[in-house]
TrEMBL record:
InterPro entries: GH115, GH115_C, GH115_sf, Hex-like_dom2
A GO molecular-function annotation: hydrolase activity
Keywords: Hydrolase, Signal
Record's protein name: Gylcosyl hydrolase 115 C-terminal domain-containing protein
Stretches assigned to the Gylcosyl hydrolase 115 C-terminal domain: 799-956
Signal peptide: 1-25
GO biological process, one term: carbohydrate metabolic process
Superkingdom in the source lineage: Bacteria
Length: 972
C-alpha cells in the first residue's frame, strides 16, 4: 500500500472510530483499526495473536489478560491463546504483557536494545505500548504492553480493550461492543502519563435499597450479601476505569468486608487498594463488627484496651494487603466521638489515638509508620476538632470532604499544602441525611463536580479522591467523569470540556444517537440543579417532615409549573423519538443511562407540580382541579411501573432488586393524598385568572417595549355547565393567540390565552397606557386590564426594570477589571443561568480594603424613575471558603457609592445552609440603595477567591411576589 492510500485509509478509519467507538481511553492516543492498515499490528487477522505473560506474573495481571482474551473474543469471535513463558521462540505474532523489573522477557528486550523502559521505570501506574519487529529469534512481531508496576500493566491491557471497542461499562450498564472481524493496532510507541491523583476510587454507601439486595437476591445468592463475586465485578470496573481504590460497603444491611475472607483475597487478586470511610478507623466496620453487649462502649477513654485490641486485630489480619488506613476515631457509625468533654479535649484524644494506631502499623507492617499510607478525613465535627489545634503527623493524607451536597467544605492553605502526606477529597454523588437524602436518581451536575474537583486539584489535593456513589447505579456517568478527572485532571482545565466529555461518552456508546442523548442528559442535570427530584416535596429529614406545597407557582413568570413540566416532557419526547432507532442490543444501556433517570425525574416533577396545580386551582374553584389531582396518582403509578420494568424485565431480570424508587420510604416518595373538596354552589360558571408577579394589583404584569414579554390569563369553569366565550373588544395592537372557544365539563375545562403587544403600532405616550380586553361569556362581560410602558431612547446595551426588578445573569457584565492574578473568570455550564463568574486566583489572600484596586465586574441598567430604597440581591452558588484563611464575600457598590460587603458563608448545618444546598443557591442582599432616573451602574468587587456569582436581582419595588425558578434577564 502506497503512502497516499495509507493516509486515506487511516483518515477514514479515524472518522469511523470517533463515531462508533468510545474515545475515553484517557491519555491513550493509540489507534485500533477494524481494517488492515500497512504497518499496523494484526491483533486479530486471519487468526488471533498469542497473549504471552511471564510464568511469574501476579494474579491481578493474569486476571486482566483473561478478561482481555474474552474482550477480543466478544469483538471478533476469535479467542487469543494465553501462554505463560519464561522465554519465547517459534511464535509468529505475540502480545507480550509484563511489568518492568518483574518480567525476564521485558528485561531481555531492554538488554538487547529492542526497547527502552527508562521513561517507565520507577513511576506510578504508567504503561508503555509499542510494536517491535523480530523481538526474539523465531518471533516475527510483538505488541508489547509494559507497566511500571502491576497496575500500570493492567491499565495498559484494559486501555487496549477500550480501544478495540469494549466499554468499561459493558457489564455494569450492558453497553454492547461493536463487532469486527479483524483488529489492527497502530505501531507508534505510546507511554502514558502518571495518573493525576494517586489513590482514586469509590465509596459504596447506603447500599440497603440497591446494591445489597441485588447482590443478595439476584447476583450472589450463594453468599446472600455483597461478597467476593460482587466485589470481583466492582474491582474489574474500577480497573477498566483506571481507578485503584475502594471504601467497601458498610451499612447494617451488609456484613463487614473482612467478614467474608474471599473479599480481601479478591482485592489482592485484582490489585485494588482497600480503605475505609471517615467513620471506620483501621479497616474496621464498626456497624457490623463492634458488639456493644460484649465489647462495651466504643470509648477510648473508658474502654481503651478493648478498642485498641479491636483495631490491632484488623491491622494484623490486613498486614499483607494493599491498604490506606483511616486513622482517628468517631462514633460507632456516622456520629461524634465518645468520651470528650470539649473540642480541645477531643483534639488531644485524637492525637493520642493516632499515635497508638501508628504503633500498630509499625508492629504489624514493619518499618516506619510514615511509610504506610494513612488518611484522616475531616468530616462533619472532625473538621472543628482539627481546627482546634490538633497536631496531625505530616505524612498522613488530609482528606477534605464536601458538605454532602457537592460543595467542598475547605481545602489546604499554604502551610497545609507543604504536608508530605498531601491532601485528598471525599465527595458525594449520593447521600443519606439532612436536610434531605438523594439516593434514588444520580443528579449532581457534572459541571459542579468538575469545578469543585478541579479547584481541589489546583490546591494540591492530589493524593486521594473518593466518590460516594451509593449503589453504583444509576451514577454511571458521574463515576466515569470523576475517575476520568482523577486520572487526567489537566484535560478538564477548561470548563467547557465537561460538556464535550459527556457528549463523547454517550456518542461512544450510542453512535449517531449519542449527541442527542448527551444533550438531553445535560439538560436533565440542569433541571435537577434547580431542584433535585428527591427535593420536590419540599420536605426534609432528620427529623423527617411531611411534604409541603411547592415554591413553583402556576401564576408567576409565565407559569413556572408548566414551564418545568414542559422542559421535562421535551426531554422525554426527545428520547421517545430516539428509542425506535436504538438497536435491540443497545436498549438496556439506553434505558439505564438515559431513559429511566429522565423519565423518573419527569414523573417525580409531575407528581408534585400537578399536585400544586390541583391545590392552587381548587382554591380558585376550578373544575379542572380534580383532573390535576388524577394526574398526581398517574405519575406515582408510572414511577412504580418504570421501576418494576427496570428490575424485572430489563436485561432479562439481570438487575432485579437494584432499583428502588423509594429509598428509606421517605414522604417525598409516597403517593400524595389528594382530598379534593366539592365546589361550592352559586359560583359563576366561568372565571378569569391572570398571571401575577407584576407591580400593578388586579392587572396582568406590565408590558414594555424593551423586554417584549408575553403574559397570559386563563378562563376556567367553576361549575358543571358548558360555556362559550369570545373576545369582543381590545386595542388592535394587543394581540391574542386565540380569541374564542368553548369550555365544557366533559371536555376542555380551562383555556389559556397568551397576550403580546405589536409595539410598532402602539401610540407614543410618556405615561403608561391602560387598556382592557373585554370577553363575553354567555352574555356576560369579563374584563382583563392591560398596562403598557413604551420606553423611548434607552440603549439596547442596558438592562431595564421590568415589573419592579432588574434581572441580570452574572456572566453578562459590561466591563471586567483585573488586578494581577486577581480576576473574574467565566465558568461555562455551571449555575442556574448556564454560566457563572468565579473570583479567580484560588491561592490569593482575601482582601477587604482598597476596593478601588480590586478586580471587579460592572453592570449597567436603566430606570425610568428614581428609587430611594432599592435592594440588590446577589445570588451565588453555596460554596464554602477555599481555605481557613478565606471567606465567601464580595463587595457591592452602586453608582460609585459606599461598598457593602456581602458574606455568603454559612456555618455548620444551619437552616440557611440547608436551604442553600436544597436549591443550589446562596442569596445575600445589599439594602437601602438609592437609584437614579436613567443609567445606573452596579460594581461587584473581588474580596475572597472562589466565589461563584450566578444571578443579580435589583429590586425597585418593595413588595414583589416571587416564585422559585430562574427568571429571564430584563434586557432588550
Amino acid at each position: 500500500m502506497n503512502l497516499k492510500n495509507y493516509a486515506f485509509c487511516f483518515l477514514v478509519f479515524s472518522c469511523l472510530f470517533l463515531v462508533n467507538q468510545s474515545v475515553f481511553a484517557r491519555q491513550s492516543t493509540g489507534t485500533v483499526s477494524g481494517i488492515e492498515v500497512e504497518g499496523f499490528f494484526p491483533l486479530v487477522g486471519d487468526e488471533a495473536a498469542t497473549l504471552v505473560v511471564d510464568v511469574s506474573a501476579e494474579k491481578s495481571l493474569l486476571t486482566a489478560v483473561e478478561n482481555f482474551q474474552h474482550d477480543v473474543q466478544t469483538v471478533t469471535g476469535k479467542a487469543p491463546e494465553i501462554v505463560k513463558r519464561a522465554a519465547l521462540k517459534d511464535q509468529s505474532r505475540v502480545v507480550l504483557i509484563g511489568t518492568v523489573g518483574e518480567s525476564p522477557l521485558l528485561e531481555a528486550l531492554e538488554q538487547s536494545g529492542k526497547l527502552d523502559f527508562s521513561a517507565v521505570r520507577g513511576r506510578w501506574e504508567v504503561f508503555h505500548r509499542q510494536v517491535i519487529q523480530r523481538p526474539f529469534p523465531g518471533v516475527e512481531e510483538a505488541l508489547v504492553i509494559a507497566g511500571s508496576d502491576p497496575r500500570g500493566t493492567v491499565f495498559g491491557v484494559y486501555d487496549l480493550s477500550e480501544q478495540i471497542g469494549v466499554s468499561p461499562w459493558t457489564w455494569w450498564a450492558d453497553v454492547p461492543v461493536k463487532r469486527q472481524e479483524t483488529l489492527y493496532v497502530a505501531p507508534a510507541p505510546l507511554t502514558s502519563e502518571e495518573p493525576s491523583v494517586k489513590y482514586r476510587g469509590i465509596f459504596l454507601n447506603d447500599e440497603d435499597w440497591g446494591l445489597q439486595p441485588w447482590a443478595a437476591k439476584t447476583f450472589e445468592p450463594e453468599t446472600g450479601d455483597i461478597g467476593p463475586k460482587t466485589y470481583a465485578k466492582i474491582f474489574e470496573l474500577l480497573l477498566r476505569l483506571k481507578a485503584n481504590f475502594i471504601w467497601p460497603a458498610m451499612h447494617p444491611s451488609t456484613k463487614a468486608f473482612f467478614h467474608y475472607p474471599g473479599n480481601a483475597e479478591m482485592a489482592k487478586n485484582y490489585g485494588i487498594v482497600i480503605g475505609t470511610s471517615h467513620a471506620e478507623p483501621m479497616l474496621r466496620n464498626n456497624v457490623d463488627e463492634w458488639h456493644h453487649d460484649s465489647f462495651g462502649d466504643f470509648n477510648y477513654t473508658t474502654n481503651r484496651e478493648r478498642v485498641y485490641d479491636y483495631w490491632d486485630e484488623r491491622v494484623a489480619e490486613s498486614k499483607d494487603i494493599a491498604a490506606v488506613y483511616t486513622v482517628g476515631m468517631r462514633g460507632v457509625h456516622d456520629s461524634g466521638m465518645e468520651g470528650a468533654g470539649s473540642t480541645e479535649e477531643a483534639a488531644n484524644m485524637l492525637e493520642n489515638i493516632i499515635q497508638d494506631q501508628r504503633g500498630m502499623l509499625e508492629k504489624h507492617k514493619g518499618g516506619d509508620a510514615a511509610d504506610v499510607p494513612q488518611a484522616f478525613t475531616a468530616y462533619k465535627e472532625v473538621l472543628g476538632i482539627y481546627d482546634a489545634g490538633m497536631d496531625l503527623p505530616a505524612d498522613i493524607t488530609l482528606v477534605w470532604p464536601d458538605d454532602n451536597y457537592g460543595y467542598i467544605r475547605r481545602l489546604s492553605d499554604a502551610s497545609e499544602r507543604k504536608r508530605v502526606g498531601g491532601a485528598g477529597v471525599y465527595y458525594h454523588a449520593s447521600y443519606w441525611g439532612r436536610p434531605h437524602d438523594y439516593l434514588w436518581l444520580s443528579s449532581t451536575h457534572p459541571a459542579l463536580i468538575r469545578e469543585e474537583m478541579m479547584k481541589a486539584y489546583q490546591l494540591e489535593a492530589k493524593n486521594i479522591w473518593v466518590l460516594n456513589v451509593g449503589d453504583i447505579k444509576p451514577s454511571e456517568y458521574n463515576i466515569q467523569l470523576f475517575l476520568d478527572m482523577a486520572y487526567d485532571a489537566p484535560a478538564f482545565k477548561q470548563p467547557e470540556h465537561v460538556q464535550e466529555h459527556m457528549k463523547e461518552w454517550y456518542r461512544g456508546i450510542f453512535g449517531a444517537h449519542g449527541a442527542a442523548i448527551g444533550k438531553a442528559m445535560w439538560r436533565y442535570y440542569q433541571l435537577a440543579f434547580e431542584r433535585k427530584p428527591e427535593f420536590m416535596g419540599w420536605s426534609q429529614t432528620e427529623p423527617t417532615t411531611p411534604i409541603h406545597e411547592s415554591a413553583y407557582s402556576p401564576f408567576l413568570a409565565g407559569d413556572e409549573v408548566d414551564k418545568r413540566l414542559q422542559a421535562y416532557q421535551d426531554l422525554v419526547s426527545a428520547l421517545e423519538q430516539i428509542k425506535p432507532g436504538i438497536e435491540a442490543e443497545q436498549f438496556s444501556a439506553f434505558y439505564q443511562l438515559a431513559y429511566y433517570p429522565i423519565k423518573g425525574a419527569s414523573l417525580m416533577n409531575q407528581k408534585f407540580l400537578y399536585r400544586q396545580k390541583a391545590l392552587d386551582y381548587q382554591q380558585e374553584g376550578r373544575l379542572s382541579a380534580a383532573d390535576y389531582a388524577k394526574k398526581v396518582h398517574e405519575a406515582y403509578d408510572d414511577i412504580v411501573k418504570e421501576t418494576a420494568f427496570y428490575n424485572q424485565q430489563l436485561a432479562d431480570g439481570k438487575w432485579n432488586h437494584m432499583m428502588d424508587h423509594a429509598p428509606r420510604r421517605l414522604p417525598v416518595y409516597q403517593e400524595p393524598e389528594m382530598a379534593m373538596e366539592e365546589l361550592s354552589a352559586g359560583i359563576p360558571s366561568v372565571q378569569v385568572s391572570m398571571e401575577r408577579g407584576g407591580i400593578a394589583e388586579g392587572k396582568l404584569p406590565v408590558f414594555n417595549n424593551l423586554t417584549k414579554r408575553e403574559h397570559f390569563f386563563d378562563l376556567y369553569l367553576s361549575g358543571e355547565k358548558t360555556a362559550s366565550w369570545e373576545v369582543v373588544a381590545k386595542p388592535d395592537y394587543i394581540l391574542l393567540d386565540h380569541s374564542s372557544g368553548v369550555l365544557s365539563p366533559s371536555g376542555q375545562k380551562e383555556e389559556r390565552i397568551w397576550v403580546k403587544v405589536d409595539w410598532a403600532n402602539v401610540p407614543f405616550s410618556t405615561a403608561p397606557l391602560n387598556e382592557e380586553i373585554s370577553i363575553q361569556v354567555d352574555g356576560k362581560t369579563i374584563t382583563v386590564p392591560v398596562e403598557l410602558t413604551n420606553f423611548q431612547g434607552v440603549g439596547s446595551d442596558l438592562f431595564v426594570a421590568d415589573n419592579g426588578q432588574v434581572v441580570i445573569y452574572a456572566e453578562n457584565h459590561s466591563q471586567r477589571k483585573a488586578n494581577g492574578k486577581q480576576n473574574w473568570e467565566r465558568v461555562d455550564g455551571l449555575g442556574h443561568s448556564g454560566a457563572v463568574m468565579q473570583a479567580a486566583g484560588l491561592k490569593l489572600p482575601s482582601v477587604e480594603k482598597d476596593f478601588g484596586r480590586q478586580a471587579s465586574l460592572t453592570y449597567e441598567f436603566y430606570l425610568d424613575k428614581a428609587v430611594e430604597e432599592a435592594s440588590v440581591a446577589i445570588m451565588a452558588l453555596p460554596t464554602h471558603p477555599v481555605t481557613d484563611e478565606n471567606g465567601v464575600k464580595v463587595g457591592v457598590s452602586v453608582n460609585g457609592g459606599p461598598i457593602q460587603l456581602l458574606d455568603f458563608q454559612t456555618h455548620g448545618r444551619s437552616e440557611e445552609w440547608k436551604q442553600n444546598v436544597l436549591r443550589n443557591r446562596a442569596v445575600k442582599t445589599a439594602k437601602e440603595i438609592s437609584l437614579k432616573n436613567g443609567r445606573n451602574t452596579l460594581e461587584v468587587f473581588w474580596v475572597d477567591p472562589g466565589v461563584l456569582l450566578d444571578v443579580i436581582k435589583i429590586k425597585v419595588h418593595p413588595e414583589l411576589e416571587e416564585g422559585y425558578g430562574l427568571l429571564p434577564e430584563t434586557k432588550p
